[in-house]
Amino acid sequence: MREYIALYPKHRLGWTYLQQKLENTEQYSKEIAVWSSMAQRFELQPKELMRWAEVHLFNYDIEGAWQVLNQSKDMHIVDADYWHLKASVAWELEDDEQFLLVFQRMEQDNITLYRAELDQLIGLFTQTNPEKRLS
């Protein structure tokens, strides 16, 4: 497959096939490299960005996952799963400011929060803004 991609680097289906093969064989480090190459050649869709970020998480690379999610022009993304993943990564990074920005966006898009996300949000407000926690 790599030989094919070397001959036809603009053939997206070839890249996708290689990425799926690496995913199915759990070669996460190599899959990250393929995603990076794909991102240089093609515009990745939200589900693809999510998979790329998840692969970083499988490798315990939370910062890498955050960087992937911030590559997108997420002002146009309405996929609830994308925003749940981004909130989870922000929480793991302990970046309260980004965590709150993600939740503001989720509220704006009427995305229902998971119970764990509500608990995280309440815990954050308990520490930083007790008055807002009560509202």
What's the number of helices?
A: 9
Give the class from helix and strand content and strand pairing.
mainly alpha
The sequence of SSEs as H and E is HHHHHHHHH
- Number-wise, the strands total 0
Largest sheet: none
Percent of residues in helical segments? over 70%
Euclidean distance between termini CA atoms: 56 Å
Percentage of β-strand residues: under 5%
Could you list the spans in which at least 5 consecutive residues all have pLDDT below 50?
Answer: none
Radius of gyration: 17 Å
Overall mean pLDDT stands at 88
Overall geometric form: elongated
Structural commentary:
This protein has 135 residues and is mostly helical. It has a domain at 64-135. Helix content is 73%, strand content 0%. It contains 9 helices and no strands. The chain has helices at residues 2-7, 12-24, 28-41, 46-58, 62-69, 80-93, 96-108, 115-128, 130-133. The radius of gyration is 17 Å and the shape is elongated. The termini are far apart.
